[in-house]
């Protein structure tokens, strides 16, 4: 089963595979994460499809220079949002969306100056800034927890 999880109200998205229940997987992830993790949806799939999703999504986001952190993706990014809508219909539909031409159309539609109001442009800029801030917070929290784990006991 392939699952999609979220930190906060869609700020970061995790896509993964589990042979167990999603609740058990959330419990495993929650122990290392200071923010609440919520499930968004699940689709039928196997570990190979999940790896292909990560590979294709990473390639697509790198092509459009979207920041990412491992298996956690920026949930407020328009490419990730559109991908998740397609993934909800199944792995094949989600992977088909990651085709270069499909993403190019979406990205150009959302980032060209024509057709976007000043408020929409500012919203895109704010979302990118918020993503970077959240990544830094998560990285700082991770490093702090890592130091605590390796600290000598009194």
Q: Could you tell me the mean pLDDT?
A: 78
Integer-rounded radius of gyration: 17 Å
- Give the class from helix and strand content and strand pairing: alpha+beta
Q: Could you say how many structural domains there are in total?
A: 1
The strand line-up of the biggest sheet is 3-1-2-4
Helix content bin: 55-70%
What summary fits the major beta sheet?
4 strands, antiparallel
Broad shape? globular
**Residue runs with pLDDT of under 50 for 5 or more positions:** none
What share of the residues does DSSP label as strand, in percent? Answer: 5-15%
- The tally of helices reads 6
Intertermini distance: 43 Å
Count of extended strands: 4
Order of helices and strands: EEHEHEHHHH
Explain this structure:
- The protein is an alpha+beta fold and 154 residues long.
- The chain has one domain.
- The chain has six helices and four strands.
- α3 runs antiparallel to α4.
- The N and C termini lie far apart (43 Å).
Topology (SSEs and partners):
Blueprint: E1 2-7, E2 12-17, H1 22-30, E3 37-43, H2 47-63, E4 72-74, H3 78-87, H4 91-97, H5 100-111, H6 118-150
Notable features of this structure?
154 residues; 57% helix; alpha+beta
Question: What's the short version?
Answer:
This protein has 154 residues and is of the alpha+beta class.
């Amino acid at each position: 089963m392939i699952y999609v999880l979220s930190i906060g109200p869609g700020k970061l998205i995790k896509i993964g595979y589990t042979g167990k229940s999603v609740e058990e997987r959330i419990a495993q992830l929650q122990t290392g994460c200071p923010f609440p993790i919520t499930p968004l949806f699940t689709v039928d799939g196997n570990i190979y499809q999940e790896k292909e999703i990560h590979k294709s999504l990473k390639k697509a986001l790198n092509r459009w220079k979207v920041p990412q952190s491992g298996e956690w993706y920026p949930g407020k990014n328009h490419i990730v949002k559109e991908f998740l809508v397609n993934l909800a219909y199944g792995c094949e539909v989600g992977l088909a969306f990651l085709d270069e031409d499909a993403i190019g159309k979406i990205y150009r539609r959302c980032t060209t100056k024509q057709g976007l109001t000043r408020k929409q442009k500012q919203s895109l800029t704010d979302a990118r800034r918020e993503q970077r801030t959240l990544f830094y917070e998560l990285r700082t929290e991770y490093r702090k927890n890592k130091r605590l784990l390796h600290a000598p006991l009194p």
